[in-house]
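Let's inspect one such protein example.
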Amino acid sequence: MSASFAPPVITIDGPTASGKGTIAHRVASALGWDVLDSGALYRLTALAVRQLGVDADDELAVAQVAAELDVAFQGDLVLLSDVDVAALIRQEEIGNLASKVAAYPPLRHALLERQRAFRRLPGLVADGRDMGTVVFPDAPLKIFLVADVQARAERRCKQLKEKGFSANLPGLLEDMRLRDERDRSRASAPLVAAPDAHIIDSSSLSIDETVNVVLDHWSSLGFRAK
């Protein structure tokens, strides 16, 4: 796809629980665009690996699972082989496994073109950890969303409890620190801001305020929300 004629993309990268997904959906809604939750693809792979009994240490086997995923996104539904698993993939156990297998180069390669296929008119808001650095390096606007790890752990704890899951803040905080370190230090597509990304610290910003900052950056490029 020629960059000159490619549909526009806004990438929103950042560490776990920084609010990427929520912000991406709100920005996409404001613009009338599609949204890509790239983390869901890795979580779906982790869930499928667990359900199929595949050895999570076997990089090629995990990549094969990813290549054969029967996945569909329909509104709030996340369908794996026609079964809604939206709640299952948000469990911390699956999130931690997803973070582990996401470091596998064969898996990242297997999911690369699948992610790029989401790029359609009128535009795409893509959230993840390497959207601006690897998947859509030509995106006209790249956001790197950060927040204090304590604030992120508290958000995740509240989110889990609201969805009926048990959650322990100290445990979540420790898991998040470990996941951050794993994401930043992996050899393949580490978590890092693209050189031309705008860094937004959402620690003390509301969701609406963060969305407005992103939209202001987009408007500054000469574009407007719908």
The longest helix spans residues 169-185.
